[in-house]
């Protein structure tokens, strides 16, 4: 079994800077971490590796500095790592990113067919939750999103049973492999790396792939392949109004409610007349 885990190196949210011309995140000089949501998917993939003996490949697209995140994943127990990096990928939106990652996964599948693709629920810098489903759509994989638990994995029948959190409760889903899974946060606890894995990660010869190597079309990656347009990036201005303390005569609910209503009518002189007019009209 071959599992691919897509991770992303994201900037520290406290030090994010925006390019004034391209409206994209400037990553140079900003401390970076593995997207926290991706760690839950990585841990779940490693648990499947422990259980059924799967091979786990970690894949990321980003600048050369993303190598540190891949080595971190290797130190936790991943078997292989691929860095998809090329200046032509710069500025990719979720559509172009999912296409580029799909091209890399298809390249990996030429050597060893991919059974499961794990992605984080979303990234802390984009918050779109679109890349994972985009990869699944392009690959033709079943989509299992917002998963809280993998109940069973049958290698012989190539079937997987999972629990999915929904607004109405928990859904138990069963589907055939291959599939794409996004794990929900808090579903597991990331392990500590073993000493052997730490040494192996330090010595590992990282695979670095370019756009040409994966065969991705130039017009479908980077800014050229990104139909999303960020028209404006700005920091919201603080509101000038300050909160007002309303003091009631007593601490009883009726007195506090009456004081709040009096304050509302005092701030909106026309409100009383409008309410009386609507009541007279039967509205």
TrEMBL record:
Pfam families, sorted: ETF
InterPro entries assigned: ET-Flavoprotein_bsu_CS (IPR000049), ETF_a/b_N (IPR014730), ETF_b (IPR012255), ETF_beta_N (IPR033948), Rossmann-like_a/b/a_fold (IPR014729)
Family: Belongs to the ETF beta-subunit/FixA family.
Protein name, per record: Protein FixA
Entry function: May play a role in a redox process involved in nitrogen fixation.
Ranges where the Electron transfer flavoprotein alpha/beta-subunit N-terminal domain occurs: 22-218
Transmembrane segments: none
Lineage of producing organism: Bacteria, Pseudomonadati, Pseudomonadota, Alphaproteobacteria, Rhodospirillales
